[in-house]
């Protein structure tokens, strides 16, 4: 089997502010981040598609104890976003005071940008990750 969209290509697109996913030609489900198979039917009849990067917050957490190397970013808020196209992805939330987050975040509409995080001793160099802000 082959990866229609490797994590490397997904990450390169993210650095250009493009969110790529996979559309299943059998059941029409969108998979994102990329996997080898459709997340719904496990089929491999997939094609690469660009997503709009818009959705709503379904859950969140505020990080108070950072992984090694990220201590100076504390505190920060991570959100899980249900994209308009269906899949759920994780990213950082900006435009808020992380010490004042609450349940009012649930359901808020957001749009995606990205941030490039520098590599550390556990990773393979710099990597882009989704960064969400409130949609107008
Ligand atoms: Zn499918």
Describe this protein's structure.
With 136 residues, this protein is mainly beta. It has 2 domains: 7-51, no CATH class; 54-134, OB fold (Dihydrolipoamide Acetyltransferase, E2P). It is built from 1 helix and 8 strands, in the order H-E-E-E-E-E-E-E-E. The protein has one helix at residues 7-15; strands spanning 19-24, 30-31, 46-51, 54-63, 76-83, 88-93, 109-117, 127-134. The strands form 2 sheets. The chain has a 5-stranded mixed beta barrel. A 3-stranded antiparallel sheet has the order 2-1-3, with helices on one face. Strand 1 (19-24) and strand 2 form a beta hairpin. The longest helix is centred in the first third of the chain and has 9 residues, at 7-15. The radius of gyration is 16 Å and the shape is globular. The mean pLDDT is 94. The protein binds zinc ion. Zinc ion is lined by residues 24, 26-27, 29, 38, 40-41, 43.
Question: Topology of this structure?
Answer:
Layout (H helix, E strand, L loop, with lengths): L6 H9 L3 E6 L5 E2 L14 E6 L2 E10 L12 E8 L4 E6 L15 E9 L9 E8 L2
Parallel strand pairs: 6-8
Antiparallel strand pairs: 1-2, 1-3, 4-5, 4-7, 5-6, 7-8
């Amino acid at each position: 089997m082959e990866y229609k969209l490797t994590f490397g290509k997904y990450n390169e697109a993210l650095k250009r502010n493009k969110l790529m996913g996979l559309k299943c030609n059998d059941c029409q489900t969108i998979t994102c981040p990329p996997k080898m198979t459709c997340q719904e039917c496990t089929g491999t009849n997939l094609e690469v598609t660009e997503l709009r990067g818009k959705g709503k917050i379904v859950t969140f957490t505020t990080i108070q104890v950072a992984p090694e190397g990220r201590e100076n970013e504390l505190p920060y808020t991570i959100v899980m976003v249900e994209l308009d196209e269906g899949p759920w992805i994780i990213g950082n939330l900006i435009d808020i005071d992380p010490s004042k987050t609450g349940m009012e975040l649930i359901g808020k509409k957001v749009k995606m940008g990205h941030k490039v995080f520098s590599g550390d001793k556990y990773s393979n160099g710099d990597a882009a990750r989704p960064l969400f802000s409130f949609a107008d």
